[in-house]
């Protein structure tokens, strides 16, 4: 009897030992305890597109670009809210703002103007995640490693991330290749190679439809996520103002930020990256004076060909966006233009929508879209309507951009007349 009890105790102890994780990172922040892998690093200037695609993009290999924006003419625009408040003063464009700094995929998303956001973000839990607003697109130069025609073709969208710091994302993967650049503050990235550790992604990305993990990034339970064993190597990459990081599509990653924090990321369409033909013959680097800024890239990329449009529409239905309202919102996003803001344009868009909605119930179903695609004449007609809309929008936005451009020199040169700290900043930055 006595021995039997002792045996049970020993047994309990053994079970306890084997169940409690041996990993030194147990219940600590994601990736914080290593072991670590060294990331490739290039300093002072982006590589040219040929080198970037051959060594990194085609191979899905991450790389850190240190201080590549240090000489960017407009980097100092982001130094102070004062400059941004001036710039956005009468701007009515709406941005989307998350309300949880520790990311939750179930949270309220607010919409507001940049002016409102700038007023509120220091005192409230707000995180702006939005395509770079139209007003500031002239001040973003596409990274030099994308500055030739077939490389630009892979570019999808540039997103702006703006908060007062202390944000943390979930562990997730993206379908896009991503060049993430820090304009203000510090960002910390943790990356795991999904090709070396195939089993890790399949275990930890436990919300496959949203490509994210329910891991608590502040307290990782290594018992629950047993694929994260001692053999898994992490890349820990800290970015500061002027640094950029290339994160290949499907790489597992998690992001934290500290201090007043502004970043831009350039998302590249992974299918187009894989198929891009980038070599001495196809890719002539644009001259410094002709570098593409975000406002000069012809939008929309996705809707400018029939195939892209089809994919876009199927994706919308997949994501549950099927009503007229959903479609106007999503097309507005992709076209960078609020379709409702112009009667002529929204009428055309209604015509486009109704061509697909054959049963006229106000929603578009997969079978309706398939019907349309089966019928060449109807599909061409629908595409032509969309082209008309795009043309109208281009005419309208051409005007907007011109009226903005005068502002910036005033705002940046305004530094000179301001107090000492501003003058120092200007000398250091410009
Ligand atoms: C930063 O965020 C964490 C959650 O990720 C929270 O627990 C902490 O209180 C925040 N710190 C500050 C200073 O707001
Ligand atoms: C990155 O920053 C964090 C937080 O400040 C720090 O603990 C860590 O050691 C840094 N990692 C590297 C590789 O510099
Ligand atoms: C194609 O267009 C014709 C003529 O407008 C219409 O009768 C037909 O229903 C359309 N088919 C589809 C699949 O939309």
UniProtKB/TrEMBL annotation:
Q: Which Pfam families match?
A: Cupin_8
Residues forming the EF-hand domain are 344-379
Question: Mind telling me which SUPFAM superfamilies this protein's record contains?
Answer: Clavaminate synthase-like (SSF51197)
Occurrences of domain JmjC (ranges): 121-285
Which InterPro entries does UniProt cross-reference here? Answer: Cupin_8 (IPR041667), EF_Hand_1_Ca_BS (IPR018247), EF_hand_dom (IPR002048), JmjC_dom (IPR003347)
Keywords per UniProt: Signal
Is Signal there in the keyword field?
yes
Record flagged with keyword Metal-binding: no
Q: Which residues form the signal peptide?
A: 1-21
User: Which GO terms of the molecular function aspect are on file?
Assistant: calcium ion binding
The domain of life is: Eukaryota
Q: What is this protein called?
A: JmjC domain-containing protein
Record the organism.
Adineta steineri
High-level lineage: Eukaryota, Metazoa, Spiralia, Gnathifera, Rotifera
């Amino acid at each position: 009897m006595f021995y039997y009890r002792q045996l049970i105790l020993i047994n309990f102890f053994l079970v306890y030992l084997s169940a409690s994780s041996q990993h030194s990172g147990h219940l600590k922040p994601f990736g914080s305890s290593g072991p670590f892998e060294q990331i490739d690093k290039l300093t002072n200037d982006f590589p040219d597109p040929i080198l970037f695609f051959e060594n990194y993009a085609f191979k899905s290999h991450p790389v850190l670009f240190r201080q590549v924006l240090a000489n960017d003419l407009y980097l100092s625009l982001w130094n102070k809210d004062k400059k941004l408040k001036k710039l956005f003063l009468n701007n009515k464009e709406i941005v989307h703002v998350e309300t949880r700094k520790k990311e939750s995929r179930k949270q309220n998303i607010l919409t507001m103007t940049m002016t409102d956001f700038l007023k509120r973000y220091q005192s409230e839990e707000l995180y702006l995640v939005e395509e770079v607003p139209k007003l500031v697109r002239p001040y973003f130069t596409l990274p030099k490693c994308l500055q030739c025609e077939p490389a630009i073709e892979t570019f999808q969208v540039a997103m702006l991330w703006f908060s007062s710091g202390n944000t943390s994302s979930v562990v997730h993967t993206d379908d896009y290749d991503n060049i993430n650049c820090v304009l203000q503050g510090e960002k910390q990235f943790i990356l795991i190679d999904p090709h070396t550790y195939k089993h890790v992604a399949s275990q930890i990305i436990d919300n496959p439809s949203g490509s994210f993990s329910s891991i608590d990034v502040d307290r990782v339970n290594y018992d629950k996520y047993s694929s994260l064993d001692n053999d898994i190597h992490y890349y820990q990459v800290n970015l500061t103002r002027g640094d950029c990081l290339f994160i290949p599509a499907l790489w597992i990653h998690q992001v934290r930020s500290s201090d007043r924090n502004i970043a831009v990321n350039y998302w590249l369409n992974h299918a187009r990256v894989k198929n891009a033909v980038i070599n001495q013959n196809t890719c002539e680097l644009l001259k410094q004076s002709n570098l593409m800024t975000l406002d000069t890239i012809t939008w929309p990329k996705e809707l400018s060909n029939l195939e892209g449009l089809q994919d876009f529409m199927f994706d919308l239905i997949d994501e549950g966006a099927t009503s007229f309202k959903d479609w106007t919102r999503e097309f507005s996003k992709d076209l960078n233009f609020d379709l409702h803001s112009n009667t002529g344009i929204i009428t055309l868009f209604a015509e486009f929508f109704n061509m697909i909605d054959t049963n006229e119930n106000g929603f578009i179903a997969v079978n309706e879209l398939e019907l349309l695609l089966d019928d060449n004449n109807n599909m061409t007609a629908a595409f032509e309507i969309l082209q008309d809309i795009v043309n109208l929008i281009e005419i309208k936005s051409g005007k907007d951009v011109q009226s903005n451009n005068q502002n910036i020199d005033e705002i940046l040169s305004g530094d000179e007349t301001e107090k000492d700290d501003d003058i120092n900043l200007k000398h250091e930055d410009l």
